[in-house]
């Protein structure tokens, strides 16, 4: 297994956010994590990304137990293994599209071609623009390019289409599918949008900090997708 989450517990201010959460994913899978607001989805994603610590339990990424890593080791893990796409883009306002992407390109020993990404993501004509000169969809494409320029093994997406209109959302999802198919990138995505789950190999439903269903796409029914 590429990802193994084992018996994770997490609390904030004495309130349980995640309770005995366990699941595993194979390399190259697309997995959607769904559930109502406050169910612990983003906290789980942040722990897999090494941004939040666990109270107990283990998270293994490619056999590396990241719950045992110290700060410098976590930085190396994020640099080597991860790309992270946020809902609100988090672009650097005084850098151009190209410069925003190059920030992460320099972190990798085996980056993808920035020119190929410009072509694949439709950013070539926008590469010298600043974020405030872009549409929401163009900003999210830039954020995706910045995340995948490192050629990460694992792409974590937190509501990647939440701030987009329906057409831009569809375009972004098609791009994520293409990334998965072309680079065999494992994608773990938190979403409220049930339509997004159609692209997933596996869907995990979390309610009140616990997994209530964890099913492959061909075994899903409508009841499993209730938020």
Architecture overview:
The protein is an alpha/beta fold and about 230 residues long. Helices cover about 30% and strands about 25% of the residues. The chain is built from six helices and ten strands. It has helices at about 40-50, 70-80, 95-105, 115-120, 135-150, 165-185; strands at about 5-10, 15-25, 30-35, 55-60, 65, 80-85, 155-160, 185-190, 200-205, 210-215. It has a six-stranded mixed β-sheet, sandwiched between helices. The longest helix has 18 residues, at about 165-185. The mean pLDDT is about 90.
The side-by-side strand order for the widest beta sheet comes to 6-7-8-3-9-10
N→C terminal distance:
28 Å
**Mean of residue pLDDT values:** 89
Shape: globular
Number of strands: 10
Please, how many helices?
Answer: 6
Which stretches of 5+ consecutive residues score pLDDT under 50? none
Order of helices and strands: EEEHEEHEHHHEHEEE
Query: What amount of the residues lies in strands?
Result: 25-35%
Quickly list its features.
227 residues; alpha/beta; globular; six-stranded mixed sheet
Secondary-structure map:
Layout: E1 3-12, E2 15-25, E3 30-34, H1 41-48, E4 56-61, E5 64-65, H2 71-81, E6 82-85, H3 97-105, H4 114-121, H5 136-148, E7 154-158, H6 166-183, E8 186-190, E9 202-207, E10 210-216
Parallel strand pairs: 3-8, 3-9, 6-7, 7-8
Antiparallel strand pairs: 1-2, 1-4, 4-5, 9-10
């Amino acid at each position: 297994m590429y990802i193994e989450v084992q018996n994770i517990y997490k609390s904030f201010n004495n309130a349980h956010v995640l309770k005995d959460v366990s699941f595993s994913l194979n390399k190259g899978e697309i997995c959607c994590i769904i559930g109502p607001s406050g169910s612990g989805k983003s906290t789980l994603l942040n722990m897999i990304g090494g941004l939040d610590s666990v109270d107990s339990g283990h998270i293994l990424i490619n056999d590396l137990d990241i719950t045992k890593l110290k700060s410098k080791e976590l930085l190396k893990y994020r640099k080597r293994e991860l790309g992270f796409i946020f809902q609100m883009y988090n672009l650097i306002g005084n850098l151009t599209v190209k410069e925003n992407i190059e920030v992460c390109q320099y972190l990798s020993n085996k980056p993808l071609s920035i020119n190929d990404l410009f072509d694949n993501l439709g950013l070539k004509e926008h590469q010298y623009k600043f974020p405030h000169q872009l549409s929401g969809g163009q900003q999210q494409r830039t954020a995706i390019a910045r995340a995948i320029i490192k050629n990460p093994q694992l792409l974590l997406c937190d509501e990647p289409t939440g701030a987009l209109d329906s057409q831009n959302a569809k375009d972004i999802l098609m791009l994520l599918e293409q990334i998965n198919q072309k680079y065999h990138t494992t994608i773990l995505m938190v979403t409220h949008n049930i339509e997004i789950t159609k692209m997933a190999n596996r869907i995990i439903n979390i309610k009140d900090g616990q997994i209530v269903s964890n099913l492959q796409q061909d075994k899903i029914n409508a009841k499993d997708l209730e938020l």
